[in-house]
Structure formats: C-alpha cells, structure tokens
Amino acid sequence: MQTETKASVEQISDGNGGRVSVLRFSGDISSSSHDALLGTYETVSKSEPVLLDFSKVDYINSSGIALVIQMLMEANKNSQKIAAFGLTPHFQKVFTMVGITKYASLFPDEAAAKASL
Amino acid sequence: MVNLKGKPVELRVPSRMGYEKVAMGTAASVAKLMGFPDDRIEDLKTAIAEACINAIEHGNQLNENLCVGVTLSSHDDSLEVKVLDDGAGISKVPPKPDIDRKVHGEEDARGMGMFLIQALVDEVEWVKDSKGQGSYVRLVIRLDKESD
After folding, report:
1. What is the ipTM of this complex?
2. In this complex, do B113 and A62 lie within 8 Å of one another by their Cβ atoms?
3. Rounded to two decimals, what is the model's pTM?
4. Out of 1.25.40.10, 3.30.565.10, 3.40.50.300, 2.30.30.240, which CATH number does the structure's domain B9-142 have?
5. Which one of A56, B92, B98, B121 counts the least CB within 10 Å of its CB?
C-alpha cells in the first residue's frame, strides 16, 4: 500500500559562485523511507547548503517527519543550512506545528528557497 | 451536501503499515460528501492516518492476523471517527514534542502521532474497553470550524 520513496540529488549553483545540493523526493515519506531520506542525505557534501524538494510527495506521516528531524540533527551538527520547498499548505502547517521551521525554513518553490540561502 | 446521518461507514484494515491510507481515503470521501472544506479534509486524513498507525503498530503490534476497525459516523455538524484495535490502550497521553530536544538527540525523533491528532481535530479521547478487550480512539471533527 505504501508508495516507495524515490530520491535523487542535484547540484545547482547558488548564484554567487557556491554550490547547493537539492534532494528531490517523490512517493510517500513514511517509516520505510529511511534509506531514501537519510541514505541520500549521507551522500551530499556537508559543507554546502541543502534544499529538500517535496513537490512530488503526496503523503507524509509522523514516522516520515521523524526521519526529516533526524536529517536536521545531522545538519545541525555540521552547522549546515537546510531549507525545504514544495510542501502542500497542509504539510507546511504540520511541519510548523511540530517545530521543524525552527531548523529548516519552508518555501513555496525552488526559486524562493534558493534565494533564501 | 449529502445527509449521511445515522448510517455509519465501517471498515476493517489489516495491521500492516500502509493500510492506514485505505482509512484515509474512505474518511476523505465521507467528509467530502458531508461538505467539509478541503483543508479540514486534509486535517482529518492526517489524524486518521496517525490513529491507524498507532493501532497497527502499538495496539495490534503489527500482528497481521488482527485488524484495525474504523467507524465513521456522520452527525449534523460533525464527523465522528473511532479507530479500534486489540491492544490495552494508553495510560497517559505523551507530552507535546519538543523540537529542540529532538534535534539535539535528547528526545526520540518519533512520537508525534498523538500530538498531531490532538492538534488537527476538535475532540479526541483514548478509551480502554472496560472488559480489557481492546481499545479505541475517538475523534470528532466539526464542519463549522473556521479554516486556519
């Protein structure tokens, strides 16, 4: 019943000579998404900012949110900036409710997220 | 808007992760028929998903021989949902999650389901069967609540 989480990494320019890693997710974000989220995050440079693209994610549950928090734990240890975009208004509300916005800003689209870095 | 009062919708889903989406879809269909706005339907879907996940994982301990029951009862201005499992129920609702403690590894990153349920619906109660034969969570979401 669960839709597999797919993840890919894209390197883009930050527009100021630096690089940004964009982690693009699709499918469900749930308890079975550990490798897709944390495994993919492990592959990116910890010295560059990271954008999380949720624009092709339909379903996120509390176990999936916990994996996002684990990613934020790692980023926090490395003083790495993380921002997210593409969440539906409902999941923007849910992320705000649990406090994620304290550690990762949320933006409606990639351009706005990139401009914040 | 369709008057569904007095005609509860009941379903049983296997205690397997992912089947909470069956309950979500059914609840969303009923809420849509009742005239709930889209944002409240999204709240309902997340609350029911979390209630079912708790029932599957904690109540029924992922035992696929057990089912999770879901009953959707329409009232004039609200939808009442019961999610039933064979577990002993909870003795205490956990405290609100603390994102700082979670990010610093001082609190389990998980454990937000019950908080989300409480935050997204208008009423919630966790009830143990008086004979010790299972438990259920009862949620109520009102039709006339103003959108956030």
Report:
1. 0.93
2. yes
3. 0.93
4. 3.30.565.10
5. B92
